[in-house]
Amino acid sequence: MSGDRAVVGQNLRKVDGVKLVTGRPAFTDDIHLPGMLIGKILPSPHAHARIKRIDTGKARALPGVHAVLTYKDVPRVPHTTAGQAWPEPSPYDTYLLDNKVRFVGDRVAAVAAETRAIAEKALRLIEVEYEVLPAVLEIEQAMASGVAVIHDEPDSTKIFDREHNIAGYILREIGNVEEGFRASDLIFEREFRTGRQQHCPLEPHVAIAWLDADQRLVIRTSTQVPYHARRQVAMILQIPVSRVHVIKPRIGGGFGGKQEMLLEDITGALALATKRPVKIEFTREEEFYMARSRHPQILRMKMGVKRDGTIVASQLTVLATTGAYGSHSTTVQGNTGSKVLPLYRAEHMRFECHVVYTNTPVAGAFRGYGCPQGFFAQETLVDEIAEELGRDPVEFRRQNMIRLGDIDKLSAQLGEGKEGLPRHIRSCGLPECLDRAAAAVDWDGKRNAAGGPAHLKRGVGMAATMQGSGIAGVDWASAFLKMNEDGSFFLQVGAADVGAGADTVLAQIAAETLGVSLDKVVITSGDTDITPFDVGAYASSTTIISGGAVRKAAEKVRAHVLDMAAKMLDAPVDKLECGDNQVYTICECRKAVSMAELAMHAMYKEKTQIMDGASHFNTDSPPPFCVTFAEVEVDTETGKVRVLHLVTAVDPGTAINPMQAEGQVEGAVAQGLGYALIEELLLDGQGRPRNASFLDYKIFSAKDMPRLTTILVETDEPLGPFGAKSISEVPINGPAPAIANAIYHAVGIRLRKLPIRPEDVLRELREKLPTL
Amino acid sequence: MFDLVEAFHRPSSIREALRLLHAGGRRARIVAGGTDVVVRADPEIRSLVDITRLGLTYIKRSGGAWAIGATTTMAQIEHSAALRALAGGILVEAAKGCGSVQLRNMATLGGNLANASPAADTAAPLLVLDAQVVVAGERSRRTLALADFFLKPGETALGKALLVEILIPAPPRGARTAWSFQKLGRTESDISVVNAAAGLQVDGKGVCKWCRIALGAVAPVPLRARAAEALVTGRKLDGSLVEQAAAEAAREASPITDIRATAEYRREMCRVLVKRALAECAARAGCSL
């Protein structure tokens, strides 16, 4: 597909790569401002308590302390920390500081001091008297009558049913599932459970705030959502948006955890209070339990099928917890239904979900955004159904899966916190993904050769998944381009490259459109004073939505360039073409002008700045498709599951930069592998974290990675720039169900709880084979 | 992390190191690779005594015996061709599995032992090798068996003395001598959930003449499974004996439940790993089970 393209589709190096690998000061924490103070937050030691008395006198008196803030010192503005487009669909149930704490780690007070040691000492000097309240820790308890009400404050809004701790509720149905089950020959129903995974970004949350010479509040922060953060901070601190300047430098990974206004408000409040620069950086421990995590869910999945293999009805009923605050509560859970069920063309579909508050760490956006949970349930159940029908899992899926030309009606009912838009499938590489991935793992050979010698049993399993590309009708972005004297272009985008390579991809789209090489595009991104608006880096939206804006802006600028060239070359515009850093005629006369000459002419002869901008949104969210095949080896004596080979085939539309796209797949697979087998933040009986460190919360490293095969199956998506959809999220969904299915193939046990720990495998094995 | 630390000392002699350690009292801490001290970041610490310049980084061989300096790193052990030849390379294997490359470049053998974690990876193979530790006090040196060195989690018989050397007496040799190290972790560079080491020697008829079995992460200290050893010694090695010995070793363990595993799982894995270690030894010694 990239045959006649010079920049798009090429494996070009990341535009920010050199400064990253050479350790240039590019990240939030790489600057040190004169007089900068260190901020620290006093975390609640209780899962649920009211602050009866708080005395900051001793802390304030400590030399080197410049401010101590409690709920008494700051405006009380209900808000959500979810970095979503206004009006956010998440409940407004959070306060800068409150007189009630709702999880271990909730904000009690904040301090700014000369050094971290002084700040920490000051925290210890704050005297707090708590009225400890009964805590709701178990997800199944939350809605019961008589349990503590977590959000009993009267001023929070958009909570579905505060008396029963229900942050949000979703019920959507197409067709009539009861009728569908009656019409089915076989009905399958199973319960699944998923764990609380943490993002574990290399760079924890960090923000530095200061007042500039004009007394405007500047916040340099590790965020995926600079524009949302600006709007939210202005609202919470009650200052005009025009008095806030948010800068997103290079980011060391977000994975959704930074689609959140998490430190910007409190750092800003401390800067306003002290008139000094203030930095707050989470320690790794704080990052684990004071930042965000993936929503744990209990899923009940029911499917009805005909004997011929047709899936007639599918129903998913979910109980999820959002933790103490409702950040991304209904939207993540909405995805669990809307992006999962429509993968198969059941006539009848029903999705119901309660999202409950508990006194546990707050869940939020996390790569996959509700899909890893849903696909774990669906793809494991579908494997079981195929087995029961005596069908090959690949062929069974092929019979039922969504295809080109289909319209997904569930999406129409389940939008971002409101009615959505129907999803039309205009590109679909699923069949080819299945073919190529099955071949790569030797599916037919290995399916018939399960087992192995002694205690090591091998098996293969697979899963099919999809995602979206931006939120239909909600996500939008803009871009601005201007030409310089040397024929280069400055590209300004609000898009937030968080390490995934957005700057490179967007610059490639501009360069391709303008007919210049990539080095002729200099990109600036994610600075609210300099770049135009963008919702930010989430929902797999940047390539398709921000890229769409760049494409439009570049087309406009290209038209200006051609107009200028037409004058200079005395040729009609329709006989001109851009390419190789010049404009040339496509008629016999073979005339050309370089971009540099053209720029000098425009600026100093015509006195015209060649520049333009554009905004872009889509009313549809084309799904990228993905299949994951896993080969595993199960140690039947230890219960350890070793993944030998993971094959991922993805249809991302056009891969603007295939090398980066593959990197995104491999990163998602590594995180999906951890979700499947080891990653889970655990709490004790008081709601305190038990494993808030990398000693106790393990993630897989290079040494643990199985052999990876990554296959890009490119399609041409009409709604995307140069045919692109998205890639960064979808591959995280497959590893857990593919591995669970491979374990079944190897040893005949079904694991329905994540992560799949050796002890659980061993227990299931013993139940199946008591002699073992 | 160490905001309250007032002094970082770099002595060049054992005597000076000991003097600084004593002067610092209970607020002084020895540091070598720092992979435990830095991670723990004990706020009580006011002075750190770096012992990496005392000349204690070496691997020496005299006859069949070995002496390893306390500050020899895991990486140096891992890459020592000579140590690979010692006891089927079980010490090398254990060092190799100790954290990541970066950690192994810093972490020291002495630190791994003096930290007294029941899960210390090198402890089990060293117990199997009847290793001794050389401890330097202000006035004298003494040598004690590694088995007597560990008292409880985080506590050793060291007192205010300095662990300077690990001695490995000449182990049994020959074609009918074999060794094995087994480790179960959550990831490839994880601390052990359970580990086990074994060494044995059989005669021409397959009768076990000498046996050592050691366990890690299943008791307050790294442990010799003496009852299991006694069961094997003097008897002909076969599958049933291996099973019995593994079960006996599991009985000798007194594991706890923690974030990494339950006590029941650890005890069971103790059995599995000892069985695998003995089976591997048997195979290497040419016995068919």
Task: Explain this structure.
The complex is a heterodimer of chains A (772) and B (289). Chain A is of the alpha+beta class and 772 residues long. Chain A has 3 domains: 31-133 and 202-253 and 258-290, Aldehyde Oxidoreductase, domain 3 (Alpha-Beta Complex), CATH 3.90.1170; 297-471 and 620-768, 2-Layer Sandwich (Aldehyde Oxidoreductase, domain 4), CATH 3.30.365.10; 476-617, Aldehyde oxidase/xanthine dehydrogenase, molybdopterin binding domain (Aldehyde Oxidoreductase, domain 4), CATH 3.30.365.10. Chain A is 27% helix and 23% strand. In chain A, helix 14 runs parallel beside helix 15 (542-569) and helix 17 (658-677) packs across helix 18. Chain A is globular, with a radius of gyration of 27 Å. In chain A, 59% of the residues are buried. The model of chain A has no long low-confidence stretch (mean pLDDT 96). Chain B folds into 3 domains: 7-50, 2-Layer Sandwich (Uridine Diphospho-n-acetylenolpyruvylglucosamine Reductase, domain 2), CATH 3.30.43; 59-168, Uridine Diphospho-n-acetylenolpyruvylglucosamine Reductase, domain 3 (2-Layer Sandwich), CATH 3.30.465.10; 177-284, CO dehydrogenase flavoprotein, C-terminal domain (Enolase-like, domain 1), CATH 3.30.390.50. Chain B is built from 12 helices and 14 strands. The mean pLDDT of chain B is 95. Chain A binds chain B through residues 115-117, 120, 637-638, 640, 678, 682, 690-691, 695-696, 698-701, 703-704, 758-759, 762, and chain B through 3-4, 39, 100, 184, 186-191, 259-262, 265, 268-269, 272.
